[in-house]
Amino acid sequence: MSQGAASPAYRRLLDWLRARGSALVAFSGGVDSSLVAVAAHDALGPRALAVTLQTQLTPAAEVEAARALAADLGLRHRVVALDALAQPEVRANQPARCYHCKRALFGALCALARAEGLAAVLDGTQADDRLEDRPGQRALLELGVASPLLELGLGKRAVRRLLGARGLRSADRPAAACLATRIPFGQELDPARLRRVEQAEAALRALGFEALRVRDHRELARVELPLRELRRALGAGLRERLVAALRQAGYVYATLDLRGLRSGSAGEALRPPKAGG
């Protein structure tokens, strides 16, 4: 174990996990769940199981990346396929969608943990997430899902530092969000639209844009990029390739959002606009 991984913060995390005896970790392969999963592996060995959920809301590339990372780390790992859209409250895509989705998906993880004889179900919610509006967190609390990073006060900087100290490639991976966040609230989640978003985002990543969102407004794609990337996106040659990629995915209109990449924009139409954007 490296010096960073043996830091006081990491030792506290290991002690917290050992006190649970055994655990199932919801493992997306992103930064936060990677730290919980690898620490659970260190603390609990075969009594820790990392589980990646495969749903219509998860890009296939994310599932494969999680599978590859788990293999690299030597985790005991399983991919479980679930039908998220079988829940009418999820498919309807109202503002409480995330609560109902988390309730259904983590309910399935809790059932799996009981079947496997594992004492706890854990997720990667970390201390900085308290600053955000996260309706799904209420569902996790109701189900008894524990968030060790949150409980120990480890925020995103600390998480990345601990992962980086262990040389994990997910330490610099851009944050991912489920595909449902690309569809405006009140518009039903349709599998074809979700696949179109997935295809469009994969094509834009192939053009070199790592952090991005393609917001689906039916025939119009509203692309969010970091502000520093807007000028490059409009550069000679690249603009045409970006438009072609979006049209190939099935969009008629291709637009760049001048406000740039941000979380939660699917719900902005529900809130009054602020002066200055």
Please state the average pLDDT score. Answer: 91
Instruction: Give the structural class.
Output: alpha/beta
Runs with pLDDT <50, length 5+? Answer: 1-5
Helix count equals 11
What's the name of the CATH homologous superfamily of the largest domain? HUPs
Give the C-level CATH assignment of the largest domain. Alpha Beta
Share of β-strand residues: 5-15%
CATH topology type of the largest domain: Rossmann fold
Strand order of the largest sheet: 3-2-1-4
The amount of helix comes to 40-55%
Q: How would the global form be characterised?
A: globular
Count of beta strands: 7
Q: How would you sum up this structure, described in words?
A:
- The chain has 277 residues and is α/β, with parallel strands linked by helices.
- It folds into 2 domains: 8-172, HUPs (Rossmann fold, 3-Layer(aba) Sandwich); 179-270, 2-Layer Sandwich (Alpha-Beta Plaits), CATH 3.30.70.
- It is built from 11 helices and 7 strands.
- The strands form 2 sheets. A 4-stranded parallel β-sheet has the order 3-2-1-4, sandwiched between helices. The protein has a 3-stranded mixed β-sheet with strand order 5-6-7, covered by helices on one side.
- α1 packs across α2 (31-44) and α2 packs across α8.
- The radius of gyration is 19 Å and the shape is globular.
- The protein starts with 7 loop residues before the first helix and ends in a 21-residue tail after the last strand.
- 38% of the residues are buried.
- Mean pLDDT is 91; it is low at 1-5.
